[in-house]
Structure formats: structure tokens, C-alpha cells
Amino acid sequence: MELQGEFKLRADSRTKSGADKSKSKLLKRINNSPGIRYRELLRATGFSNGVMAYHLKKLENSKRIKVSRSHRRSTRFYPLSIAARELRVIEFIRRRTARQIVRFLLQDDSRTFKDIVQSTKKVRSTVSWHLSRLREGGIISVGVGRNQTYRLKNRDLVIKVMKKINS
Fold first, then answer.
1. Structure pTM?
2. What domains appear along the chain, each with residue ranges and CATH number?
3. Mind listing the pLDDT tens digit for each residue in 90-121?
4. Strand 149-152 vs strand 75-79: parallel, antiparallel, or unpaired?
5. DSSP secondary structure string, 41-107?
6. Are 82 and 34 in contact (CB under 8 A)?
7. Which pLDDT tens digit goes with each residue over 116-126?
8. Which residues have C-beta within 8 Å of that of residue 97, sequence separation ≥ 6?
9. Cα(155)–Cα(17) distance, rounded to whole angstroms?
């Protein structure tokens, strides 16, 4: 009977270390990719859906990660080191085209719609949609004049966030 007790103890310690490894893998991925979505995380880690959901719930309940659930049923995961202001910016620039637009606006103080379309090589409707989202999110502002110009509202914050998501 003593051998069975020892076996159970060893099996439990292996299970805990396996769970810890899984949580560490998730934490590392979330730290390296702030704002990562569930499906991206699933593909990147190779975990099954149930295993990942279990470990993410444990990490969220233990307050080791921040979780943002939007009304569009999109869930994003962030490390605790991300401030609320940064989190808002990351939400909007995780999309490739929006990130291209923001990078382009970082190069110069303000740009016209035509400049942005040429730079991104996207159709006008796509650029317009992304600009509208970035404006609604408070990332960019629109100057009114002969030609509408677009500029970043808080350049320093955007630079700080871009460094975090690119590292």
C-alpha cells in the first residue's frame, strides 16, 4: 500500500509540472504577442481547444493575464504589464492594414487619404474602413481642409505600443 501512495504522489507532481509548463508556454506567447486572439494562440501553442481554454481560465482567475472581450465576440489576451491606454491602441493596430497605416503616419506628421491608399496598396474602401476604425478608437484625427489629412493623436503612445507588439 505504501508503494501506491508514493506512486500517486509522483504522478500528482508530474501533472502539476505539466500544467505549469503549459501555463508558462501560454504566458510566454501572450507576453511576446500582446493582444493575441484565441485562435492565433491555439495555432501558435498547438494545444487542444479544451486544454487551452482550461489553462487560460486558470491564468485569468489568478490575475496573471488581462483579457479583453469585445461586443463582437472577439477575445484578446494581454500581459499584466500592458496599461489600459496601451491596450486600447493594441486592439486597433493588431490588424495588418491598420498597422501599415499607423506606420505610414509615423513617418510624417500628416498624410492625405490618397497618400495612405498609395502606401498601403489597398483599395479605397478598405483604407476608408480602417481609417474610420482608427478614428473611432481615438488613434488618429482628421484635419479638415481642402484635402482631409490624417495624423496620429498620441504619437509617443503609438511608438511605445508599436515597440511592444514588434518585439
1. 0.73
2. 2-82 (1.10.10.10), 87-166 (1.10.10.10)
3. 888 888 899 999 999 999 888 999 999 999 99
4. unpaired
5. HHHHH---HHHHHHHHHHHHHTTSEEEEE-TTS-EEEEETTS-HHHHHHHHHHSSHHHHHHHHHHHH
6. yes
7. 999 999 999 99
8. 120, 122, 126, 127, 130
9. 43
